[in-house]
Structures are given as structure tokens and as C-alpha cells.
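A.,

Following up on our hallway conversation. C-alpha cells first:
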């Protein structure tokens, strides 16, 4: 495992996932209870990335935009429990990056297909800002964009492959980040798909009212 520093409190842990196949199997089990869905953008258009969640809360559409909810609006049930392999990985990765005593509350699972991307944004809703974000890449490679906090600092383009983990916290916790459009390819584990697991900890308050736009 190589640790590549990309900013203060931010790093890429190359090849950190010991068993990517077990992680993908866990994703399939989660999706059997909480199916992947396409959330809506503020304009009402469906996002190209499909998403599901596991853990205490999940990221959903709410009437004012987006937020966290304890119940899956698609099924009416609580989100699937976070698999132990997910919790161990996120806790271990955070510790390797210098953040001890980290236990994730939620894992957002994004499914990318060819051409799908994620616009530059900050993770600032519903969670304590002193907790880092842990992001796991599985399957097809992607280009992660990681920049400043609106101060004119240009973002960096960081290639990520199957098993890489990015952690950012501390002074970099509120950095802008995104993913460039996924290029065509076939991965032996996931086919023409990339999965991204985003772990967050320190939930503040779930969304009180849910919208109905899930794509």
C-alpha cells in the first residue's frame, strides 16, 4: 500500500482494499434490499449516476434539494445495516490517514457507467465537519478531481483504480471534488461499471421531510 498525500489532511491509499470482490458482493446484497435509483437534480432531471445507501441514514432527494433520511423513500424501510467489512475498511483507512476513532454512520454507494460523472461540490450537509470523508473506488478506473475551497486554487486530476481509497479531512475537509466522465472499458470484477463508496461520520440530523423524485 502506497500513501500519496494530495493536500493537508488528504491522501490516496493506493491498493488499500484487500478483497474488492467481497466488497462488490456486499454491494449486491445491499442493492437487493435498497435498489439503486437515480436521484433528481434541482432542475428535475435524473442524475446519470445511480445510488443506494447503507448505514444509519441515506442520501436522498428532499423537498428543498437533498438531505439524509433514516428511511428509504423507495421501500419505506430502514436502510440496510452497514456490512462489517465496510466499517473495518473505512475505520482502517481513516486511521492510516491520521484520523483515529472514526466510525462511519453512512455509506453512499454510487454506480457509474460510461459517460457518467460527478460535478465539483463540497460535502457539507448533515455531518460534522471535523470528521473526514473516506471514498473507495471499485471496478473501472476514474479521474478524481480535488481542489480548493473556492479560493481560486485549481483542482488536481488524480487517477483512481480498483482498490484505491481517498481520505480527506482536517484543513481539506471542505475541498471541492468531483469525478470526470467515466471512460469506456471492461473490468474483470465489475464489467463496464465503477462503484464508489463514500463513508461519512458524525451525523447531525436526518432530513425531516422526504421528496418523491428518485428517478
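Then the amino acids I'd put at each of the 215 positions:
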Amino acid at each position: 500500500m502506497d500513501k500519496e498525500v494530495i493536500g493537508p489532511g488528504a491522501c490516496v491509499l493506493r491498493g488499500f482494499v484487500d478483497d474488492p470482490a467481497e466488497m462488490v458482493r456486499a454491494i449486491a446484497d445491499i442493492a437487493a434490499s435498497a435498489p439503486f435509483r437515480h436521484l433528481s437534480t434541482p432542475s428535475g432531471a435524473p442524475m446519470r449516476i445511480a445510488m443506494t445507501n447503507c448505514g444509519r441514514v441515506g442520501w436522498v432527494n428532499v423537498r428543498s434539494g437533498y438531505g439524509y433520511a433514516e428511511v428509504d423513500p423507495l421501500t419505506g424501510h430502514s436502510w440496510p445495516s452497514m456490512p462489517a467489512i465496510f466499517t473495518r475498511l473505512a475505520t482502517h483507512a481513516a486511521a492510516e490517514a491520521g484520523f483515529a476513532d472514526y466510525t462511519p454512520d453512512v455509506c453512499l454507494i454510487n454506480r457509474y457507467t460510461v459517460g457518467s460523472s460527478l460535478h465539483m461540490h463540497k460535502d457539507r450537509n448533515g455531518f460534522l465537519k471535523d470528521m473526514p470523508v473516506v471514498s473507495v473506488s471499485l471496478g473501472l478506473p476514474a479521474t478524481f478531481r480535488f481542489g480548493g475551497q473556492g479560493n481560486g486554487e485549481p483542482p488536481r486530476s488524480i487517477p483512481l483504480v480498483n482498490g484505491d481509497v481517498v481520505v480527506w479531512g482536517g484543513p481539506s475537509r471542505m475541498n471541492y471534488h468531483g469525478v470526470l466522465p467515466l471512460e469506456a472499458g471492461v473490468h474483470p470484477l465489475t464489467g463496464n461499471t465503477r462503484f464508489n463508496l463514500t463513508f461519512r461520520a458524525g451525523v447531525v440530523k436526518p432530513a425531516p421531510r422526504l421528496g418523491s423524485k428518485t428517478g
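Confidence is low (pLDDT under 50) at residues 208-215. Curious whether your intuition agrees with the design.

B.
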